[in-house]
Protein backbone atom coordinates (compact mmCIF):
# COMPACT_ATOMS: atom_id res chain seq x y z
CA UNK A 1 0.00 0.00 0.00
CA UNK A 2 1.43 3.39 -1.01
CA UNK A 3 2.09 5.71 1.91
CA UNK A 4 0.62 9.19 1.63
CA UNK A 5 0.69 12.12 4.00
CA UNK A 6 -2.81 13.07 5.25
CA UNK A 7 -4.14 16.28 3.78
CA UNK A 8 -4.74 19.26 6.09
CA UNK A 9 -8.39 19.61 7.18
CA UNK A 10 -8.93 22.61 4.87
CA UNK A 11 -8.16 20.41 1.84
CA UNK A 12 -10.36 17.48 2.79
CA UNK A 13 -13.24 16.40 0.56
CA UNK A 14 -16.19 16.84 2.89
CA UNK A 15 -19.92 17.27 3.06
CA UNK A 16 -21.72 19.46 5.60
CA UNK A 17 -24.59 18.22 7.71
CA UNK A 18 -25.90 21.32 9.45
CA UNK A 19 -22.90 23.00 11.09
CA UNK A 20 -20.83 19.80 11.19
CA UNK A 21 -18.34 18.82 8.49
CA UNK A 22 -18.75 15.14 7.59
CA UNK A 23 -15.97 13.26 5.70
CA UNK A 24 -17.05 11.74 2.38
CA UNK A 25 -16.45 8.07 3.43
CA UNK A 26 -18.96 8.58 6.26
CA UNK A 27 -21.48 10.43 4.09
CA UNK A 28 -21.26 7.68 1.47
CA UNK A 29 -22.87 5.25 3.94
CA UNK A 30 -26.04 7.28 4.14
CA UNK A 31 -27.80 9.73 6.39
CA UNK A 32 -27.86 7.43 9.42
CA UNK A 33 -24.05 7.09 9.38
CA UNK A 34 -23.60 10.83 8.91
CA UNK A 35 -25.99 11.61 11.75
CA UNK A 36 -24.24 9.14 14.03
CA UNK A 37 -20.89 10.75 13.18
CA UNK A 38 -22.18 14.21 14.05
CA UNK A 39 -23.73 12.95 17.30
CA UNK A 40 -20.35 11.58 18.39
CA UNK A 41 -18.91 15.09 18.52
CA UNK A 42 -22.00 17.03 19.56
CA UNK A 43 -23.61 14.67 22.09
CA UNK A 44 -20.86 12.30 23.21
CA UNK A 45 -17.78 14.57 23.46
CA UNK A 46 -18.62 17.37 25.87
CA UNK A 47 -15.24 19.09 26.28
CA UNK A 48 -14.75 21.71 23.56
CA UNK A 49 -11.00 21.22 23.21
CA UNK A 50 -11.29 17.43 23.08
CA UNK A 51 -14.06 17.73 20.52
CA UNK A 52 -11.92 19.91 18.26
CA UNK A 53 -8.86 17.64 18.59
CA UNK A 54 -10.86 14.47 17.90
CA UNK A 55 -12.60 16.09 14.93
CA UNK A 56 -9.24 16.96 13.37
CA UNK A 57 -7.93 13.45 13.98
CA UNK A 58 -11.03 11.80 12.48
CA UNK A 59 -11.03 14.08 9.44
CA UNK A 60 -7.36 13.38 8.73
CA UNK A 61 -7.87 9.62 9.05
CA UNK A 62 -10.86 9.50 6.70
CA UNK A 63 -9.01 11.70 4.20
CA UNK A 64 -6.25 9.10 4.23
CA UNK A 65 -8.84 6.34 3.74
CA UNK A 66 -10.31 8.10 0.73
CA UNK A 67 -6.85 8.61 -0.78
CA UNK A 68 -6.39 4.85 -0.60
CA UNK A 69 -9.84 4.00 -1.96
CA UNK A 70 -11.14 2.66 1.36
CA UNK A 71 -14.84 2.84 2.10
CA UNK A 72 -16.02 2.87 5.72
CA UNK A 73 -17.01 -0.86 5.80
CA UNK A 74 -13.68 -1.82 4.18
CA UNK A 75 -11.49 -0.35 6.95
CA UNK A 76 -9.63 -3.15 8.73
CA UNK A 77 -7.11 -3.23 11.63
CA UNK A 78 -4.22 -3.37 9.16
CA UNK A 79 -5.35 -0.09 7.62
CA UNK A 80 -5.56 1.68 10.98
CA UNK A 81 -2.17 0.24 11.97
CA UNK A 82 -0.62 1.42 8.70
CA UNK A 83 -2.03 4.90 9.19
CA UNK A 84 -0.78 5.11 12.79
CA UNK A 85 2.68 3.93 11.74
CA UNK A 86 2.78 6.54 8.99
CA UNK A 87 1.81 9.55 11.08
CA UNK A 88 4.20 8.34 13.79
CA UNK A 89 7.07 9.28 11.48
CA UNK A 90 6.08 12.94 11.65
CA UNK A 91 4.18 13.42 14.90
CA UNK A 92 5.14 12.96 18.54
CA UNK A 93 4.12 9.82 20.42
CA UNK A 94 1.54 11.62 22.62
CA UNK A 95 -0.08 13.16 19.52
CA UNK A 96 -0.22 9.78 17.76
CA UNK A 97 -1.74 8.17 20.86
CA UNK A 98 -4.37 10.91 20.99
CA UNK A 99 -5.25 10.40 17.32
CA UNK A 100 -5.54 6.64 17.79
CA UNK A 101 -7.77 7.21 20.82
CA UNK A 102 -10.03 9.45 18.72
CA UNK A 103 -10.32 6.88 15.93
CA UNK A 104 -10.92 4.03 18.38
CA UNK A 105 -13.59 5.93 20.30
CA UNK A 106 -15.34 7.04 17.13
CA UNK A 107 -15.54 3.49 15.77
CA UNK A 108 -16.87 2.27 19.13
CA UNK A 109 -19.63 4.85 18.75
CA UNK A 110 -20.35 3.71 15.18
CA UNK A 111 -20.45 0.04 16.27
CA UNK A 112 -22.97 0.80 19.03
CA UNK A 113 -25.04 2.69 16.46
CA UNK A 114 -24.88 -0.35 14.14
CA UNK A 115 -23.20 1.65 11.39
CA UNK A 116 -20.25 -0.78 11.20
CA UNK A 117 -20.06 -4.36 12.54
CA UNK A 118 -16.72 -4.10 14.36
CA UNK A 119 -14.09 -1.63 15.54
CA UNK A 120 -10.95 -1.94 13.37
CA UNK A 121 -8.95 0.25 15.77
CA UNK A 122 -9.57 -1.82 18.92
CA UNK A 123 -6.65 -4.19 18.29
CA UNK A 124 -4.19 -1.51 17.15
CA UNK A 125 -1.53 -0.49 19.65
CA UNK A 126 -0.11 3.00 19.76
CA UNK A 127 3.51 3.96 20.33
CA UNK A 128 4.99 3.52 23.78
CA UNK A 129 5.33 6.74 25.73
CA UNK A 130 6.02 7.52 29.33
CA UNK A 131 6.90 10.81 30.97
CA UNK A 132 8.15 11.67 34.42
CA UNK A 133 8.40 15.42 33.76
CA UNK A 134 6.00 17.63 31.86
CA UNK A 135 7.02 19.60 28.78
CA UNK A 136 5.57 22.90 29.99
CA UNK A 137 8.25 25.61 30.13
CA UNK A 138 8.39 27.10 33.60
CA UNK A 139 9.91 30.45 34.60
CA UNK A 140 12.54 30.42 37.30
CA UNK A 141 11.65 31.82 40.70
CA UNK A 142 13.54 35.03 39.89
CA UNK A 143 11.83 35.37 36.49
CA UNK A 144 8.39 34.91 38.04
CA UNK A 145 9.12 37.59 40.64
CA UNK A 146 10.52 39.95 38.03
CA UNK A 147 7.49 39.59 35.78
CA UNK A 148 4.95 40.18 38.54
CA UNK A 149 6.80 43.17 39.99
CA UNK A 150 7.25 44.71 36.53
CA UNK A 151 3.49 45.02 36.01
CA UNK A 152 2.33 48.59 36.59
CA UNK A 153 -0.25 48.99 39.33
CA UNK A 154 -1.35 52.52 38.44
CA UNK A 155 -3.56 51.34 35.59
CA UNK A 156 -6.65 49.13 35.46
CA UNK A 157 -5.08 46.90 32.81
CA UNK A 158 -2.00 46.39 34.94
CA UNK A 159 -4.12 45.45 37.95
CA UNK A 160 -6.14 43.03 35.81
CA UNK A 161 -3.06 41.37 34.34
CA UNK A 162 -1.43 40.96 37.74
CA UNK A 163 -4.63 39.42 39.11
CA UNK A 164 -4.92 36.98 36.18
CA UNK A 165 -1.31 35.77 36.48
CA UNK A 166 -1.66 35.65 40.26
CA UNK A 167 -4.76 33.47 39.95
CA UNK A 168 -2.93 31.01 37.68
CA UNK A 169 0.07 30.89 40.03
CA UNK A 170 -1.56 30.79 43.47
CA UNK A 171 -4.45 28.44 42.64
CA UNK A 172 -2.67 26.13 40.13
CA UNK A 173 -5.64 26.85 37.86
CA UNK A 174 -5.93 25.98 34.20
CA UNK A 175 -6.40 29.11 32.14
CA UNK A 176 -9.85 27.93 31.01
CA UNK A 177 -10.92 27.68 34.65
CA UNK A 178 -9.63 31.17 35.41
CA UNK A 179 -11.28 32.84 32.43
CA UNK A 180 -14.60 31.11 33.19
CA UNK A 181 -14.87 32.69 36.63
CA UNK A 182 -17.51 35.28 37.40
CA UNK A 183 -17.29 37.99 40.02
CA UNK A 184 -19.47 35.88 42.33
CA UNK A 185 -16.83 33.11 42.23
CA UNK A 186 -14.66 35.28 44.49
CA UNK A 187 -16.50 35.19 47.80
CA UNK A 188 -15.98 35.23 51.60
CA UNK A 189 -16.34 32.36 54.04
CA UNK A 190 -15.92 33.83 57.48
CA UNK A 191 -12.94 36.18 57.30
CA UNK A 192 -11.29 34.34 54.42
CA UNK A 193 -11.87 34.87 50.71
CA UNK A 194 -12.36 31.84 48.45
CA UNK A 195 -12.30 31.19 44.71
CA UNK A 196 -14.59 28.86 42.79
CA UNK A 197 -12.86 27.49 39.69
CA UNK A 198 -14.80 25.97 36.81
CA UNK A 199 -12.63 23.03 35.75
CA UNK A 200 -12.88 20.50 32.93
CA UNK A 201 -15.94 18.26 32.75
CA UNK A 202 -18.15 20.79 34.51
CA UNK A 203 -16.37 20.24 37.84
CA UNK A 204 -16.24 23.06 40.36
CA UNK A 205 -13.14 23.35 42.47
CA UNK A 206 -13.13 25.66 45.50
CA UNK A 207 -10.10 26.73 47.52
CA UNK A 208 -9.08 29.53 49.91
CA UNK A 209 -7.27 32.52 48.45
CA UNK A 210 -3.61 33.20 49.19
CA UNK A 211 -3.17 36.57 50.90
CA UNK A 212 -1.10 37.96 47.99
CA UNK A 213 -3.72 36.90 45.46
CA UNK A 214 -6.43 38.45 47.63
CA UNK A 215 -4.50 41.73 47.50
CA UNK A 216 -4.29 41.48 43.69
CA UNK A 217 -7.97 40.65 43.26
CA UNK A 218 -9.23 43.27 45.70
CA UNK A 219 -7.23 46.01 43.99
CA UNK A 220 -8.39 44.95 40.53
CA UNK A 221 -12.08 44.57 41.43
CA UNK A 222 -12.15 47.92 43.23
CA UNK A 223 -10.50 49.72 40.30
CA UNK A 224 -12.82 48.02 37.80
CA UNK A 225 -15.92 48.80 39.86
CA UNK A 226 -17.41 45.35 39.27
CA UNK A 227 -17.90 44.21 42.85
CA UNK A 228 -21.72 44.32 42.65
CA UNK A 229 -21.92 42.88 39.14
CA UNK A 230 -21.86 39.34 40.48
CA UNK A 231 -22.93 37.43 37.35
CA UNK A 232 -20.46 39.13 35.02
CA UNK A 233 -17.02 37.77 34.02
CA UNK A 234 -14.28 38.37 36.55
CA UNK A 235 -11.46 38.84 34.05
CA UNK A 236 -12.61 41.00 31.14
CA UNK A 237 -11.23 42.11 27.80
CA UNK A 238 -10.23 45.69 27.02
CA UNK A 239 -12.02 48.01 24.61
CA UNK A 240 -9.39 48.87 22.01
CA UNK A 241 -6.73 51.16 23.45
CA UNK A 242 -9.16 53.03 25.66
CA UNK A 243 -8.10 51.18 28.80
CA UNK A 244 -11.77 50.48 29.58
CA UNK A 245 -12.99 46.98 30.28
CA UNK A 246 -15.77 45.39 28.24
CA UNK A 247 -18.41 43.01 29.53
CA UNK A 248 -16.77 40.09 27.69
CA UNK A 249 -14.61 37.47 29.40
CA UNK A 250 -10.99 37.05 28.44
CA UNK A 251 -10.21 33.91 26.43
CA UNK A 252 -7.20 31.62 26.53
CA UNK A 253 -5.60 33.39 23.52
CA UNK A 254 -6.17 36.75 25.25
CA UNK A 255 -4.35 35.56 28.36
CA UNK A 256 -1.55 33.97 26.34
CA UNK A 257 -0.89 37.17 24.40
CA UNK A 258 -0.95 39.19 27.60
CA UNK A 259 1.60 36.88 29.26
CA UNK A 260 3.84 37.09 26.19
CA UNK A 261 3.79 40.89 26.33
CA UNK A 262 4.49 40.96 30.05
CA UNK A 263 7.30 38.41 29.79
CA UNK A 264 8.97 40.35 27.00
CA UNK A 265 8.71 43.62 28.91
CA UNK A 266 10.20 41.99 32.02
CA UNK A 267 13.08 40.46 30.08
CA UNK A 268 12.05 36.87 30.88
CA UNK A 269 14.26 34.55 28.82
CA UNK A 270 12.20 31.38 29.39
CA UNK A 271 9.47 30.78 26.83
CA UNK A 272 6.42 30.97 29.08
CA UNK A 273 2.71 30.60 28.49
CA UNK A 274 -0.50 30.20 30.46
CA UNK A 275 0.32 26.73 31.79
CA UNK A 276 3.78 27.85 32.91
CA UNK A 277 2.27 29.46 36.00
CA UNK A 278 0.53 26.24 37.01
CA UNK A 279 3.91 24.47 36.93
CA UNK A 280 5.64 27.35 38.73
CA UNK A 281 2.99 27.40 41.46
CA UNK A 282 3.06 23.63 42.09
CA UNK A 283 6.86 23.58 42.13
CA UNK A 284 7.03 26.56 44.51
CA UNK A 285 4.54 24.86 46.84
CA UNK A 286 6.57 21.63 46.91
CA UNK A 287 9.88 23.51 47.30
CA UNK A 288 8.49 25.09 50.46
CA UNK A 289 7.61 21.76 52.08
CA UNK A 290 4.16 21.16 50.61
CA UNK A 291 2.95 17.58 50.20
CA UNK A 292 2.32 16.04 46.79
CA UNK A 293 -1.12 14.73 47.79
CA UNK A 294 -2.16 18.23 48.86
CA UNK A 295 -0.82 19.70 45.61
CA UNK A 296 -2.87 17.10 43.75
CA UNK A 297 -6.03 18.18 45.58
CA UNK A 298 -5.31 21.89 45.04
CA UNK A 299 -4.64 21.35 41.33
CA UNK A 300 -7.78 19.25 40.89
CA UNK A 301 -5.86 16.30 39.44
CA UNK A 302 -7.42 12.83 39.50
CA UNK A 303 -3.98 11.22 39.85
CA UNK A 304 -0.86 12.22 41.75
CA UNK A 305 1.14 11.06 38.70
CA UNK A 306 -0.27 14.01 36.79
CA UNK A 307 0.69 16.43 39.55
CA UNK A 308 4.19 14.97 39.63
CA UNK A 309 4.68 16.08 36.00
CA UNK A 310 4.60 19.68 37.25
CA UNK A 311 7.21 19.10 39.95
CA UNK A 312 10.46 20.60 38.60
CA UNK A 313 12.55 20.43 41.77
CA UNK A 314 14.71 17.76 40.17
CA UNK A 315 15.82 20.13 37.42
CA UNK A 316 17.73 22.29 39.89
CA UNK A 317 19.32 19.21 41.45
CA UNK A 318 20.49 18.09 38.01
CA UNK A 319 21.96 21.52 37.27
CA UNK A 320 23.83 21.54 40.57
CA UNK A 321 25.29 18.12 39.78
CA UNK A 322 26.32 19.12 36.27
CA UNK A 323 28.25 22.07 37.67
CA UNK A 324 30.39 19.60 39.61
CA UNK A 325 32.05 18.60 36.32
CA UNK A 326 35.25 20.64 36.52
CA UNK A 327 38.62 20.15 34.82
From TrEMBL:
SUPFAM superfamilies named in the record: DNA breaking-rejoining enzymes
Record-annotated membrane-spanning stretches: none
Coiled coil: none
UniProt keyword list: DNA integration, DNA recombination, DNA-binding
PROSITE patterns to which the protein is assigned, alphabetical: CB, TYR_RECOMBINASE
InterPro entries the UniProt entry points to: CB, DNA_brk_join_enz, Integrase-like_cat_sf, Integrase_catalytic, Integrase_recombinase_N, Integrase_SAM-like_N, Tyrosine_recombinase_XerCD
Pfam families hit by this protein: Phage_int_SAM_1 (PF02899), Phage_integrase (PF00589)
Keyword DNA-binding: yes
Positions of the Tyr recombinase domain: 134-324
Family annotation (Gene3D superfamilies): 1.10.150.130, Intergrase catalytic core
Keyword presence, Hydrolase: no
Span of domain Core-binding (CB): 32-111
Family named by the database record: Belongs to the 'phage' integrase family.
PANTHER family, alphabetized: INTEGRASE_RECOMBINASE PROTEIN MJ0367-RELATED, PHAGE INTEGRASE-RELATED
Protein name: Tyrosine-type recombinase/integrase
Protein source organism: Paeniroseomonas aquatica
